[in-house]
Amino acid sequence: MMMIEGSADQLPEVDFIAALEYAQKAIQPIIAAQRKLAAMYSKTKRVFPLVVCEPKALAICERVAGEGDQLKKAIFLASKKERGDAVKVVVEKAKAACKAELGDVFDARQIKMAFEKLQEKVYRNAIIQSGERADGRKPLDLRAISCEVDVLPRVSRFLALPARRNPGSRPRDPRHIQGCPGSRRHHRRPEQALVPAALQLPAFLGG
Q1: How far apart are CA 153 and CA 186, in angstroms?
Q2: Mean of pLDDT over the chain
Q3: Is the dihedral of CA 55, 59, 60, 65 positive or negative?
Q4: From 181's CA, which of 4, 60, 84, 195 has a CA 20 to 30 Å away?
Q5: CA 137 to CA 143: how far, in whole Å?
Q6: What is the pLDDT confidence band of residue 203, given thresholds at 50, 70 and 90?
Q7: Distance CA 88, CA 162 (A)
Q8: Using CB atoms within 10 A of its CB, is residue 159 exposed (0-12), middle (13-18) or buried (19+)?
Q9: What is residue 179's three-state secondary structure?
């Protein structure tokens, strides 16, 4: 498998294929050296056991999640936080059921694997059967993107982000934006969060 990244407006396909063939021949000595090095100094590959969800645990979780369609109802709540909290409630019910029915054989990690399968099934079925995603968007709906052109009163090196991402979701606290220490609420636009940002200009713009 090979992934090609690049673009050319006026390069004929035959020339592009020829370039790939030339590169393939040129790289053969490097490949041969890598294989020789691996044969001389490589370690025996470790074999790891395949960890899968136990059928009994999956069946119990599926039964609990399907009672009153509580997992599906949880996944389709309005906001992401509400969805997460509701799913946790279903998970705890399933964990209690597994512990009661499986006893000492119970492994809490099985619950996580089971609900990954069950949630994926709910997501896929909703999109395929009713054409609806968890946040209420249809398959062809895109989140709104807006751009503004204006003169800033001063350069603050902050990037303004909308505090509300999906329809019906709660505004996100800018302090909780991952990987963005120092973020804060916009003082004039409470619906936006200000995130520290650095602007890298091309060298030719600097003269």
Answers
A1: 14
A2: 76
A3: positive
A4: 84
A5: 8
A6: very low
A7: 27
A8: middle
A9: coil
